[in-house]
């Protein structure tokens, strides 16, 4: 039993990611530790509303704000909580769930709520790209272009993302990028690349590990340069991307730094946590260390194939159990 009851606000995006938000709210009613938490639920009504709700909650001293939604909702809530005493929690129900997966937050609501009940808080880094906060990855080139196409398609989900990627990946023309990298000393590099990803966390989402060695606790960016590749190489790279071994491919170069200035010939798309935006030719990316309190697992990053399979089965089983339990509750109320 905790000495004092904490306040937690659940921020629900009703249109993001997957369905089943009502089931999640019922699970919160049933499973949340009421001795630890006094809770309220807020529903977003427009773009940017999650950030407003989280900032208002933090300003009035709420202990935890929990994002129920996809990567966009998590980004909005998290950027309102950086440099505050209010912790972020996540019940993931998006199409990618990049930060939640990296932090080993369970993908099913039942286990995510149990993690919140434990209340273990870690402090993590976040990134800035041209003054936009991000928590997983940002990038220029192919992944930014695909994110732009994905946003314009009007459909969500992994299948739509893969369709856009397959239509684009082998037609996309590499560019020449100039990189000014800042650590204790400054260095300059020039690369012809298909994309450059700057990673705080290890993955784009859906366990696609663009930066397998990245950590949200090391105070560094992992800068991933993907050089032009062939169809045969693309197949092997896709396999390594999902296995968490992409950094071993000969077409991948990795730099670690606190800040990088990426120069390209003209303005174009960037993305941050999957959200695309048109930006100027120069793109500045930096890391802000130890700035966000977050309820998450002690471990982070790439999970083993075995543990991934176990987690998928737990997610599947718990989702069936959750739906069956709620259906049974409805039947009993009608009886």
Provide the structure class. alpha+beta
What shape does the CA trace take? globular
Encode the helix/strand succession as letters: EHEHEHEHHEEEHHEEEEHEEEEEH
Q: What value does the Rg take, in angstroms? A: 20 Å
Strand order of the largest sheet: 6-5-16-13-8-9
- What's the total number of strands? 16
Q: Major sheet, described briefly?
A: 6 strands, antiparallel
Give the proportion of residues in helices.
25-40%
Q: Average pLDDT, to the nearest integer?
A: 87
The N- and C-terminal alpha carbons lie at a distance of: 36 Å
Range of strand content: 25-35%
Low-confidence stretches: 306-333
Total helical elements: 9
Question: What does this entry show, briefly?
Answer:
This protein is α+β, with helices and mostly antiparallel strands and 335 residues long. It is built from nine helices and 16 strands.
List the helices and strands and how they pair.
Layout: E1 6-12, H1 21-31, E2 37-43, H2 49-59, E3 64-69, H3 71-81, E4 87-92, H4 98-102, H5 109-118, E5 121-129, E6 132-134, E7 137-141, H6 142-153, H7 158-168, E8 175-182, E9 186-193, E10 195-199, E11 221-226, H8 231-243, E12 252-257, E13 259-263, E14 268-272, E15 275-279, E16 282-295, H9 305-334
Parallel strand pairs: 1-2, 1-3, 3-4
Antiparallel strand pairs: 5-6, 5-16, 7-10, 7-14, 8-9, 8-13, 10-11, 11-12, 13-16, 14-15
């Amino acid at each position: 039993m905790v000495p004092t009851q904490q306040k937690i606000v659940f921020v629900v995006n009703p249109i993001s990611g997957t369905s089943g938000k009502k089931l999640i709210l019922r699970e919160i009613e049933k499973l949340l530790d009421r001795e630890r938490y006094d809770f309220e639920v807020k529903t977003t009504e427009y773009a940017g509303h999650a950030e407003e709700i989280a900032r208002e909650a933090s300003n009035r001293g709420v202990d935890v704000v929990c994002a129920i939604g996809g990567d966009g909702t998590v980004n909005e809530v998290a950027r309102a909580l950086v440099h505050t005493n209010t912790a972020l929690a996540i019940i993931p129900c998006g199409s990618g769930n990049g930060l939640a997966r990296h932090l080993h937050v369970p993908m099913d609501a039942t286990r995510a709520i149990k993690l919140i009940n434990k209340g273990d808080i870690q402090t993590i880094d976040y990134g800035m790209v041209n003054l936009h906060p991000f928590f997983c990855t940002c990038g220029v080139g192919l992944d930014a272009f695909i994110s732009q196409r994905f946003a314009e398609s009007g459909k969500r989900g992994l299948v739509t993302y893969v369709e856009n990627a397959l239509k684009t990946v082998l037609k996309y023309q590499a560019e020449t990028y100039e990189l000014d990298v800042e650590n204790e000393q400054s260095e300059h590099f020039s690369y012809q690349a298909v994309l450059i990803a700057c990673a705080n966390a290890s993955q784009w989402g859906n366990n696609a590990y663009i930066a397998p060695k990245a950590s949200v606790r090391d105070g560094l960016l992992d800068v991933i340069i993907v050089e032009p590749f062939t169809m045969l190489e693309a197949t092997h790279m896709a396999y390594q991307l999902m296995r968490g071994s992409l950094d071993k491919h000969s077409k991948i170069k990795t730099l670690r730094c606190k800040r990088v200035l990426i120069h390209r010939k003209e303005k174009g798309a960037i993305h941050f946590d999957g959200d695309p935006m048109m930006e100027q030719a120069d793109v500045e990316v930096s890391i802000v260390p130890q700035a966000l309190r977050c309820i998450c697992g002690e471990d982070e990053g790439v999970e083993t194939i075995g543990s991934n399979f176990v987690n998928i089965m737990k997610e599947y089983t718990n989702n069936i159990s959750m739906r069956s339990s709620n259906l049974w509750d409805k039947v009993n109320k009608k009886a």
